[in-house]
Amino acid sequence: MTETTLYDRNGKSVAYIVEDGAIYTWSGRAQSYLDSDRVYGWNGRHLGWFDGGIVYDLGGRRVGFTRQTCPCTVSTSPTKSTKSTRSTKSTRSTARTRPSFSSADSESSLEAFLLGAQ
């Protein structure tokens, strides 16, 4: 099973994406998911985009990275906890218009970005 680790701007591993697009935290919680290039919270809230190995917030600023796109050396990922049972996804909100993506970092951390999914 192919999984992709997501790192914050400091190279800390924060979450991982599984094959079906669900994004899990290391504690085993399905926090958000991908729908095409859009990132949604399990609550249906549109959070941002995943494009070219970079997670962008709603303002088009970089908030998360894959190993290949992270601007610094990445840390070793922690041991994964057992995945918890997923709750039912809420109806997705209408996605915002995709902004021009910036090379600037978001003011939000990747953890805070994913917590917006609650």
Give the strand tally: 8
Tally of separate domains: 1
Secondary structure: helix percent = under 10%
Low-confidence stretches: none
Percent range for β-strand residues:
25-35%
N-to-C span: 26 Å
The mean pLDDT is 91
Largest sheet: 8 strands, antiparallel
Q: What is Rg?
A: 13 Å
Strand order of the largest sheet: 1-2-3-4-5-6-7-8
What is the structural class?
mainly beta
How would you sum up this structure in a few lines?
The chain is mostly beta strands and 118 residues long. The protein is built from one helix and eight strands.
How would you describe this protein?
The model has no long low-confidence stretch (mean pLDDT 91). With 118 residues, the chain is mainly beta. The chain has one helix and eight strands, in the order E-E-E-E-E-E-E-E-H. The protein has one domain. The chain has one helix spanning 110-115, and strands at residues 4-7, 13-17, 22-25, 30-35, 38-41, 46-51, 54-57, 62-65. Strand 2 (13-17) and strand 3 form a beta hairpin. It has an eight-stranded antiparallel beta sheet with strand order 1-2-3-4-5-6-7-8. The chain is 5% helix and 31% strand. The longest helix is centred in the C-terminal third of the chain and has 6 residues, at 110-115.
Index terms:
118 residues, 8-stranded antiparallel β-sheet, 1 helix
Give the topology.
Elements: E1 4-7, E2 13-17, E3 22-25, E4 30-35, E5 38-41, E6 46-51, E7 54-57, E8 62-65, H1 110-115
Antiparallel strand pairs: 1-2, 2-3, 3-4, 4-5, 5-6, 6-7, 7-8
